[in-house]
């Protein structure tokens, strides 16, 4: 079968992944209203194409935190990728390396920081950080990422407590026994299990080991212990974006965590405009959540994002054929973005302007 869009890879993954893994990957929090809305909200945006603009030569490259990338689409951090393919994070990072874009490695990886660095030495790698109650463990992760050549620390700020995900509770999610969280030794590497009906092993792990007392003081602490630029992932309001910008944070990743934390938050693309308006000239802004097509990338850029990331689509690519599958997914979206640029009258990423996109009610008012 010819796979021509992300949905084809998603459908394939639904047929091949074991239930425990598939449910974990695909679920959102609670009733999954926000999960559906993450994708649907993109379809409430309309592109206003401009014509007769000589688009015979086009360039999708841009710069992010000083690094040149070939297109404004990267790979978001997702945990436990070896449940999708035996090479997990290493395959994903290699695909990002091939397409000269950014790979964000999760703290909760089934390949270690060092394994990913060795597998994809030339990829632009960022490290996603969860702050553990044990600050020495946290500091150890930061120092290892610095040593391994990672270019930024992405602090996830939307997970002080773990989201309620019905399927993981029903499945009593447990990490398959042949896998471990490769950045750790001891119980932090393996103790994702559940012994109680209706309880997910993930909630046990996070609610026991992650620091739920985090405040902006801890962001200042992080700034004081690393020389790497810091990106805050999970900001959804202008107020928090303003605090981050005032603190000199390098980047904000507008995200609702793939709608996995609390149902009822806005779609990421709905939250983007107020953040871009508040701090867009002071800090780099990125977005993830529901990006499934090149037109989504175009819309997010028009509304103020400098680049976007995808989470689940890369997992569906991994489940299809590892590194090659992720490359195919990246290539599909890249081709769609190139086509959108051309047909909208843009030759470069810098040509995408906010006037290129409006919310659907714009047309009802005319
Ligand atoms: C299976 C899965 C695991 C995830 N694990 C992490 C993680 O370890 N750290 C993190 O900051 N975000 C994590 N996320 C959230 C993603 O980084 C990202 O915000 C989200 O997947 C984007 O939405 P999308 O899947 O619609 O592209 C995870 C998301 C999924 C689907
Ligand atoms: C074993 C703990 C899972 C940690 C968090 C992974 C994640 O962020 C997710 O959304 O799932």
Automatic annotation (TrEMBL):
Family designation: Belongs to the FMN-dependent alpha-hydroxy acid dehydrogenase family.
Name listed for the protein in its UniProt record: Peroxisomal (S)-2-hydroxy-acid oxidase
PROSITE patterns reported in the protein's UniProt record: FMN_HYDROXY_ACID_DH_1, FMN_HYDROXY_ACID_DH_2
Pfam families membership: FMN_dh
Domain FMN hydroxy acid dehydrogenase: 1-362
Database matches in SUPFAM superfamilies: FMN-linked oxidoreductases
Record's catalysed reaction(s): a (2S)-2-hydroxycarboxylate + O2 = a 2-oxocarboxylate + H2O2; 2-hydroxyoctanoate + O2 = 2-oxooctanoate + H2O2
Lineage per the UniProt record: Eukaryota, Metazoa, Ecdysozoa, Arthropoda, Hexapoda
Matching InterPro entries: Aldolase_TIM (IPR013785), Alpha-hydoxy_acid_DH_FMN (IPR012133), FMN-dep_DH (IPR000262), FMN_HAD (IPR037396), FMN_hydac_DH_AS (IPR008259)
Gene3D superfamilies given in the database record: Aldolase class I
Cofactor: FMN
Keywords, alphabetical: Oxidoreductase
């Amino acid at each position: 079968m010819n796979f021509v869009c992300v949905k084809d890879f998603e459908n394939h993954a639904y047929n091949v992944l074991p239930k425990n893994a598939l449910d974990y990957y695909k679920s959102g929090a609670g009733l999954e209203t926000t999960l559906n809305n993450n994708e649907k909200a993109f379809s409430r945006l309309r592109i206003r194409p401009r014509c007769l603009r000589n688009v015979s030569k086009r360039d999708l490259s841009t710069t992010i935190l000083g690094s040149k990338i070939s297109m404004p689409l990267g790979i978001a951090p997702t945990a436990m990728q070896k449940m999708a393919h035996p090479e997990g994070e290493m395959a994903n990072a290699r695909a990002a390396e091939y397409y000269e874009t950014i790979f964000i490695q999760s703290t909760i990886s089934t390949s270690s920081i060092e394994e990913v660095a060795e597998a994809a030495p030339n990829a632009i790698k960022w490290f996603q950080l969860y702050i553990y109650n044990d600050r020495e463990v946290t500091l150890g992760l930061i120092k290892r990422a610095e040593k391994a050549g990672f270019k930024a620390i992405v602090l996830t700020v939307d997970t002080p407590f773990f989201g309620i995900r019905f399927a993981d509770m029903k499945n009593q999610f447990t990490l398959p026994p042949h896998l471990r969280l490769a950045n750790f030794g001891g119980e932090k590497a393996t103790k994702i299990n559940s012994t109680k009906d209706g309880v997910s092993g993930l909630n046990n792990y996070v609610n026991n080991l992650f620091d739920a007392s985090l405040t902006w003081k801890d962001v200042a602490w992080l700034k004081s212990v690393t020389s790497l630029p810091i990106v805050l992932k999970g900001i959804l309001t202008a107020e928090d974006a303003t605090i981050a910008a005032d603190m000199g944070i390098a980047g904000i990743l507008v995200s609702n965590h793939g709608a996995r934390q609390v149902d009822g938050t806005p779609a990421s693309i709905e939250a983007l405009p107020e953040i871009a308006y508040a701090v867009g000239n002071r800090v780099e802004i990125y977005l993830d959540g529901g990006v499934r097509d090149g037109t989504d990338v175009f819309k997010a850029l028009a509304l103020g994002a400098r680049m976007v990331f995808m989470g689940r689509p890369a997992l569906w690519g991994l489940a299809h054929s590892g590194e090659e599958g992720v490359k195919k997914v990246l290539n599909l979206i890249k081709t769609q973005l190139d086509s959108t640029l051309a047909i909208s009258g843009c030759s470069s990423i810098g040509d995408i302007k906010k006037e290129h996109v409006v919310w659907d009610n714009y047309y009802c008012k005319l």
